[in-house]
Design a protein that fits this description.
There is one protein chain. With 341 residues, the protein is of the alpha/beta class. It folds into two domains: 252 residues, NAD(P)-binding Rossmann-like Domain (Rossmann fold); 79 residues, TATA-Binding Protein, CATH 3.30.310.10. It is built from 13 helices and 14 strands. The strands form two sheets. The protein has an eight-stranded mixed beta sheet with strand order 3-2-1-4-5-6-7-8, sandwiched between helices. The chain is globular and about 65 Å long. The termini are far apart. The structure holds zinc ion.
């Protein structure tokens, strides 16, 4: 038997028994940015049997400061984050299964992507996806670990449906656009994401090894710059709030109508467009059509068109990210002009 997990098995909370449980479990990490890179790394090293990485994005230079699974070669090779993460993670642990999906989780694909997972870790950068995950997890009784980071501040909370309050018990509704700062306005300190992702991973290990009594029942908030740690009591929110999700089972965010197909991306001068009836795009054909317009490069994961003002990244599922604007109508007209449909 290998020594790989010897130190983890020595730890009283896990033991050989707990380690065996981890081998049979599947964790999905949604969003492979700063939080997702760190929690994925820890899950893979801990020996969780299957780790699935879902991410919609490609890697940029400004990611390298905190997204610990990526390097300069990944950028040169135009790799989507999920693919680059899988390559790195499989080298770290070849005994487990690692799945990579390049997609944005939305109401129409969430079930096919997550139905067989035992736990979900939040690595997203937006509340729309978090509320969707919350609805899905409460409906299907899947535990998930919320995490968010901005500047030197990080927040996390563990959600076990039916046992602890859900995200909606705590927040009720998505914070209105503009009321929350983004990485774009406040920046982000990499140790802040490191601490939150580490807590998320520890919480995952507790739940996956059936140590539910050890699970964090607070909303934890850290400010690493001001040396402040806050533990907000939330344990009674499930009882005192009339939560639409876990009290009256209205899973609003699982309905397509709530989902916005065109969104500005956190921390970026970029807009993402997801066609409602998107079909598979033939990237080589599109590349030859776009050649007269600007610089075109492509591989099997994505195509990139660079013009004077914009960078247009097209994924095979017809999802597009337009960098160089925050304006939705501008992005839509660029989409119509170059991609068509
Ligand atoms: Zn709730």
């Amino acid at each position: 038997m290998s020594e790989r997990y010897a130190r983890q098995e020595l730890f009283y909370g896990i033991g050989k028994e707990g380690q065996k449980k981890l081998t049979g479990k599947k964790v999905a990490i949604i969003g492979c940015g700063a939080l997702g890179c760190t929690s994925a790394n820890l899950m893979v090293r801990s020996g969780v049997g299957c780790v699935k990485i879902i991410d919609r994005d490609f890697i940029e230079e400004c990611n390298l400061q905190r997204q610990t699974l990526f390097d300069e070669d990944d950028i040169s090779n135009n790799l989507p984050k999920a693919i680059a993460a899988k390559k790195k993670l499989q080298k770290i642990n070849s005994n487990i299964t690692i799945e990579a999906t390049v997609a944005e989780i939305n109401p129409s694909n969430i079930d096919s992507n997550l139905h067989d997972t035992d736990l979900i870790i939040d690595g997203t950068d937006n509340f729309e996806t978090r509320f969707l995950i919350n609805d899905y997890c409460v409906k299907n009784a899947i535990p998930w670990i919320y995490g968010a980071c901005i500047g030197s501040i990080g927040i996390t909370m563990s959600i076990i449906p039916g046992v602890t309050p859900c995200l909606r018990c705590a927040l009720q509704d998505i914070p209105t656009f503009g009321s929350t700062e983004t990485c774009d306005t406040a920046g982000i300190l990499s140790p802040a994401s490191g601490i939150i992702a580490s807590i998320q991973a520890a919480e995952a290990l507790k739940i996956l090894t059936d140590n539910v009594a050890a699970v964090n029942r607070y909303l934890l908030k850290f400010d690493l710059w001001k040396n402040e740690i806050t533990r907000l009591k939330i344990h009674n929110l499930r009882e005192i709030n009339i939560c639409k999700t876990c009290k009256s089972n209205q899973f609003e965010y699982l309905k397509m109508g709530k989902y916005s197909a065109t969104t500005t991306l956190c921390g970026r001068n970029a807009v993402q467009i997801v066609p409602v009836n998107g079909s598979n795009i033939n990237l080589p054909m599109l590349a030859s059509r776009l050649k007269p317009i600007g610089n075109v490069s492509f591989n099997k994961y994505m195509l990139r068109l660079e013009t004077d003002k914009y960078v247009v990244t097209v994924f095979p599922d017809s999802r597009v990210i337009i960098t160089g604007t925050n304006d939705l109508p501008t992005a839509k007209s660029i989409y119509a002009k170059y991609i068509g449909m």
